[in-house]
Specification:
The complex is a heterodimer of chains A (234) and B (485). Chain A has helices spanning 3-25, 36-47, 53-61, 63-84, 88-93, 106-128, 137-154, 162-187, 209-233. By secondary structure, chain A is mainly α. Chain A has one domain. Chain A is globular and about 55 Å long. The two termini of chain A are 39 Å apart. With 485 residues, chain B is mainly alpha-helical. Chain B has one domain. Chain B has helices at 3-24, 26-54, 76-91, 101-119, 123-141, 148-179, 184-194, 198-215, 224-230, 233-257, 262-285, 289-308, 313-336, 350-353, 355-369, 375-390, 392-420, 433-451, 453-467, 470-477; strands at 57-60, 71-74. Chain B has a two-stranded antiparallel sheet with strand order 1-2. In chain B, helix 1 (3-24) packs antiparallel against helix 4 (101-119). In chain B, 59% of the residues are buried. Classes of the chains: A mainly alpha (234), B mainly alpha (485). At the A-B interface, helix 1, helix 2, helix 4 and helix 8 of A face helix 1, helix 4, helix 5, helix 6 and helix 8 of B.
Amino acid sequence: MSFRDITALALLAGLAFLLALVLTEFPYTNGSLNGIGQSILALAPKEVGTANIVTSVVLAYRGLDTLGELIILFVAATAAGMVLSNSPEEEAQNLQPLVRFPAAGFVLQISSHLLFPFLLLLGAYIIVHGHLTPGGGFQGGAVLAAAFFIPVLTSPAGPFSHNVSSLVEGLAGGSFIVIGLLGLFGQGYFLAPLGSPGIVGDLVSAGSLPLLYTAIGIKVGSELAGLLARFTQT
Amino acid sequence: MMGPILLVILPFLGAFMLPMVYRHYAQVGSWVAPLILVVNLIICLGLWHGVEVVGAQSMAMGGFTAPLGIVFYIDGLSLLFVLLLLSGSLLLWLGAWHRRVKEEMLLLLIVGGGSGLVLSGDLFNVYVFFEIVAVASYGLSASRRGDACGYAASLRFLLIGSLGSSLILLGISIIYALTGTLNLSHLTLLAPELLQGAAGLSAFALMLIGFSVKAELFPVNTWVAEVYAHAPVRVSALLAGIVSKLAMVVVLRLLLLLYSHEYAYMLLLGIGVAGLVTGELAAFHAKDLRRTLAYSSIGQLSVIAIAFSIPGPLGILSGIALAFHHALVKTGLFMLAENWRGDFSSLRGVAQKAPLASFLLIVFSLSMIGIPPLPGFWAKFVLLQAGFAAGNWYQIAMIVFLLSIVVEAAYFFRFIRVLYQNSAEQPPSMPHKRELQPALVVAVLLLLVMLMIDPINHNLTTIATQASDVKAYIYNTLPAWKLDY
């Protein structure tokens, strides 16, 4: 056994020991909430007005965390883009054009075009109903990304503009922050929910939260599509 | 008061907008990021003044009061490190002549995330900001083009970092399962009853390992040498000098608020001593300047961990002093190391060609070793005072620390001797003026600190006392508990 194996085993044994310690003391509650969960469950419908309580936690009580998650995705995409993209000098040196995969067959190409509007519709639906039903900006955004990425898969030489995707991404991310700043200047708190909660369960309710989810959806969609396209093109 | 959130939000907004600005107004683009840093610096100084006048403050996000919503805690300690981050990244902008848009974006994101990391008073929020800083550092450490070793090093950094982040998340979820809350001051109230058993302490151990990846502490610092040897010097200076300290501040906060338990202090002390011994010995064995500096920064950060593991304000004071001293000096040293690559022996006779750079290197090394009257002496002296007053185990740690200074002196003097040897061969090229600019600024700052050691000592003592005041933390962040005190 090499030294490396021994250290790896020691690490695993240490982790197992810590987890065993945890298990000895863990509170096995029978499904009831402890701590602040209870209070949020009681307060959220009238304070924030979402039928989907998860959304009120994600966008209202812990809105800053969601902005942070959005930014983690943005950082990862930026860093990957930086490592993967070629500089202008390198592209000038590359005499051969980039090797591109040939386009897929007729059936796949046509069906990817057929899928496009339906995927857009599904993504938009999931985003817009994020405050009512499970789902929301992140999930809907992933569906939107698929809508734009499937055509890239079927015809890799086709047009995918990184300029447009990064423009949309920046604008959507910026508008999330701007909505937060409106709360800061209007009500004194960053990301304070704007507008009235409305009637719980209505499509137009929960104040500015659906707007936030729309910004998240568009941002996640353009970011994932751009990142995946970057992977296929390098 | 809206300053604290602007410290975090402005860099984020800037990073989102930067590509657009560059595309349409290329001339304006290169000024956006420094401008944001300057604005943030002004905001930070304003907040600093506010804290001096009215004491620590808190800021709730979204208008939801503390245990339910997220809260920022603004006191001397957090502002001090935000100040360090802002002024440090501004300093590293000096003379950086050609940057890519994406590098500037990642730097802004590190600034925003790092500010949030030290300001936030919510455990999960801390994790989110930590992730932003971590992912941006993986990216920056791979920013030298076409350097295969650099890519391999940053890939290793990414793997260790992801393991660390998942351990932090595991620790946080254990804490949430035990207590049902994530707010740090709410946790402080619950900690004596719920968190200082075996499960709570192992959650601390998991989180400590996770944060140690960035703080370069003992078992998880194997990425350090290769990343700092291959990344651009400004990135090495930023990661070693500044970002690593932010993770250390988080560990300090956890220790002060949640885990003022003997086991937790002893765990940090043990990790610190192990890191100190391994780091300094590895630095002694290293064959080139940048790896020496990387290993020496492992040693120095372990010393900071030892300092923070001493209970009471004196330990915190010495930790802050060491952190700031190391941030200044290591930044300067890394800037000088830009062109001094390769084995030591190839650097013979460099001093004749680059007298200024060699002189700066001597000043920084002497301060690092702790020769009076340079500030390094003061920082180490405060630690020795605190350590010898603290008890048995700490006294043993102090003896190890004294021995490590001998090793440190040995490798720095060895390198300086090489610089001043005569050589028949042509010595390699010298640090460019661009890299000398920040190094000169650092040297001037070091002299200023030396001249103003008394007022600085006084201010840092106030900050350390304020930071160790747990009741003030709870009083300021949990409005509902105000009646109890």
